[in-house]
Amino acid sequence: MTETTIKTKEHLHPKNKHAQEYDFDFLCHENSDLNDFIYVNKFNAKTIDFANPKAVKCLNRSLLRAYYDIDYWDFSDYNLCPPIPGRVDYIHYLADLIEASEIIKGVKILDIGTGATCIYPLLGQAEYGWEFVGVDVDEDSLNNAKQIVIKNGLADKISFRFQQQVSNILKGVVLEGEQFTATMCNPPFYKSEEEAKAATMKKLKGLNKDTTQLIRNFAGTQNELWYKGGEKAFLHNYLYESSLFKNQSIWFTSLVSKKDLIRGLKVYLKKLGATKVQVINMEQGNKTSRVLAWSFL
């Protein structure tokens, strides 16, 4: 098994369009609704309240319209609102992985847990023209994602499948003989609702915000935020199921939020017979995350 760790600089991927400060004048021109959330801070700079879920949602909608030609992007306020700069970073690093494998045409990606926002397929299609299959255990989320895709004229590039068994990840959605270039996934972080609330409380205190009413600045439903056994259990299940479909995807990948999990995941992949493993470290401001990528081919 070949192992590789790729370290990046303390900023976004070189191809990421959001490496600089947000140009709020430009974004407001593209989406006038954003004006309602703009204020001038103590440094005399325009910004928004990043603890306000509606402001964050409007900002990300503006980014999609301004930089990715996504005109329609709407979903329930209860759903997770993904930050565009971080999400597109995963897309760019996945593109590097695919390019290094000398795959140029016919890229087909399986997005596990695509969610109501369909964010990875939208960004992957906009930046690289990839074809996507989005999978989720929540039918309402899939129906919303379908509407986003249809209204942006992408139904011929992005399709969806319902995962009927909550405990399954690849089983039941990967068809016999089907081939993917890669899979991608942003797994649930928490073990329970209580753990998710505790993390929200900590974040709000760090922002000096009122904690009497827990409101996530990026929202989030149960399926998006927690999984029985947490991130570790989800990833071990994902790794095991990937070994059952080892010939049906060139690469399997996932975000991993907890650095301490990487060593155990590598050991498990070796037992499963993975031939290549890469850990791609991504630093986005004060947040560090990583993409774990593995192959059985």
Structure, described:
This protein has 297 residues and is α/β, with parallel strands linked by helices. The chain has one domain: Rossmann fold (3-Layer(aba) Sandwich), CATH 3.40.50. It is built from 9 helices and 10 strands. The strands form 2 sheets. An 8-stranded mixed sheet has the order 1-9-10-8-7-4-5-6, with helices on both faces. Strands 2-3 form a two-stranded antiparallel ribbon. A hairpin with a 2-residue loop joins strand 9 and strand 10. Helix 3 packs across helix 4. It is globular and about 55 Å long. About 4% of the residues have low confidence.
CATH class: Alpha Beta
Query: How confident overall, as mean pLDDT?
Result: 87
Question: Structural class, please?
Answer: alpha/beta
- The appropriate CATH architecture is 3-Layer(aba) Sandwich
**Secondary-structure element sequence?**
EHEEHHEHEHEEHHHEHEE
End-to-end separation in angstroms reads 11 Å
Query: What fold name goes in the CATH topology slot?
Result: Rossmann fold
With strands numbered from the N-terminus, the spatial order across the biggest sheet is 1-9-10-8-7-4-5-6
The total count of helices amounts to 9
Which band does the percent of strand residues land in? 15-25%
Count of DSSP E strands? 10
Unreliable sequence segments = 214-226
Radius of gyration: 19 Å
